[in-house]
Amino acid sequence: MTGHPINFAALHDVELSGLAATGDRKAFGELVRRHGATVRALLRRMGADPARADDLAQDAFIAAFERIGEFRGEGTFAAWVRKIAARLYLKKLPREKRLQSLEEMGEAEGDTGAEVRFAGRIDLDEALKNLGEGERLCVSLCYGAGLSHVEAADALKLPLGTVKSHVKRGLEKLRARLAQPERAAEERLGNG
Amino acid sequence: MAEVDFERRLERMFAEAPVTADETAFAARVEGRLNRGWAARRAMIWIAGVAGGAIGATQLLVSNLRPSLERLEIATPRELITLREAAGAAEWMTPLVGGETLWLMAALAAAAVGLALTRMIEEF
Fold first, then answer.
1. Is the pLDDT of residue B22 over 70?
2. Which of A66, A169, A171, B63 is buried most, with the most CB atoms less than 10 Å from its CB?
3. A171 in contact with B at a CB cutoff of 8 Å?
4. Which of A37, A54, A140 sits opposite B18 (nearest CB)?
5. Interface test with B, best of A1, A13, A40, A136 (most B CBs within 10 A)
6. Are B27 and A36 in contact (CB under 8 A)?
7. In terms of domains, do A119 and A42 share one?
8. Complex confidence, ipTM
9. Cα B115 to Cα B35, B51, B107, distances in angstroms
10. A130 CB near a chain B CB, below 8 Å?
C-alpha cells in the first residue's frame, strides 16, 4: 500500500515473526536465513544425516510458520524453532531405533585421545562424536533444543532417571573432551 | 558453579552454527514450499467458490422453473411438452433443495469471502 519495500534484514526476530504471523512469507524467509543453520546443525547433532537434517529442518520451519501465532517472543525465535525441530525429529525417528539407541551404553566411535587435534579447537560436533547415541540425543535435547529433563523424558517416552543419567554421563564426557584443547593451549602458553 | 558455567557454555555452543554456503538456497527452498502451499490453498478456495456459485445458481434456476411452468398453462401444447421435459430432466436436483444445501452454500460462500480477503491481504 505504501510502496516502500521493507528492509527485513534490519528487523528484529520478534518484528519479523509478527509480520510472518500476518502471512508475510518473505519476512519468515529472513528468519529462515538467519536461523536455518542452527536448526540443521541441531538435527545433525541429534543423529540425522545431513540430507535428512535438511528435510526435517524444512518441515520444522513450515510447522513454525503455521504455528507462528504461538510464538510470543518470550524466548528466542531460534530456540523455539529448535524445539519444534527436535520434537519433529523424535516423532519421525522409528521407535525401535530410538529405544535401541538409548539402550546402547557403549562408547561411540570417534577420535581417541591420542588423535585429538590440539592444533585447532575441538568443536562441539567433534566432541559429540564421543558420546553414545542415547547420551548425544539427551544432551542435544536438553542443551540444544532447550527441553527440560522432564520434557525430554516425556518426548522420548523414557523414565526420567534414564534421561538424567544419559545427560550426566554425556556432560562428563563433553566436559573432559572440551577441556583438552584448553589445557593444550595453556601448556603452549606456559612453554612459550 | 563450574557446572552451571559449563552448561551455559554448552548451550551457547549449540546455538552457534557452523557457517554453510547454502543458507540462502535453504531459505529459498522453505519459501518455495510455503508459496506452493499458499497457492494450493488459494486454488482450493477458488474451486470452492466456483462450485458454491454454480450450486447456488442451479438452485435459483430450478426453484423459478416450476412457477414459470404453471404460468405457461395457457401456452401451446408443444411448448408445454418441451418445458415439462426440461423440468423432468432437472428433477434430480430437487433433493438438493434442503437444509444441507443451505449449509453447503453458506460454507462455500464463506470460502469465497475468504478468497476475497486473502486476495486483499496479498495485494495490499
1. yes
2. A171
3. yes
4. A37
5. A40
6. yes
7. no
8. 0.75
9. 16, 13, 12
10. no
Final residue before a domain boundary, out of A62, A92, A122: A92
Query: What pLDDT sits at residue A9?
Result: 85
Are residue A189 and residue A136 in the same domain, yes or no? yes
Residue to substitute from B14, B16, B31, B115, interface A, most A β-carbons within 10 A:
B14
Q: What residues in A contact B124, CB-CB < 8 Å?
A: 1
CATH number assigned to the domain comprising residue A128? 1.10.10.10
If asked whether residues A25 and A78 sit together in one domain, one would say: yes
Taking residues B100-111, report their average pLDDT.
77
Instruction: Encode pLDDT of A139-158 as tens digits.
Output: 999 999 999 999 999 988 88
Which residues of B lie inside 8 Å of A (Cβ-Cβ)? 6-7, 10-11, 13-20, 23-24, 26-31, 33-35, 37-38, 121, 124
Grid cell at residue A100: 535401541
Contacts of B84 by beta carbon, 8 Å cutoff, 6+ apart: B69
Look at residues A58, A92, A126 and tell me which one is the last residue of a structural domain: A92
Q: Which of A25, A36, A37 sits opposite B35 (nearest CB)?
A: A25
Query: What is the pLDDT, as a whole number, of residue A118?
Result: 36
If you average pLDDT over residues B1-21, what whole number do you get? 83
Range A64-72 average pLDDT = 90
- CA B21 from chain centre, in angstroms, equals 40
The answer to which of A24-33, A49-58, A77-86, A94-103 has the lowest mean pLDDT is A94-103
CB contact under 8 A, A58 and B19: no
Domain residues of chain B, as ranges?
Answer: 44-124
Whether the per-residue pLDDT at B49 is higher than 60: the answer is yes
Cα-based distances in Å from B70 to A126, B66, B74, B77, B124: 88, 6, 9, 13, 51
- Are A65 and A157 in the same domain? no
* Partner residue opposite B34 with nearest CB, options A42, A65, A175: A65
Measured over the CA atoms of residue A57, residue A58, residue A62 and residue A63, the dihedral's sign is negative
The answer to whether the CB atoms of A36 and B37 lie below 8 A apart is no
Tell me the average pLDDT across A113-140. 72
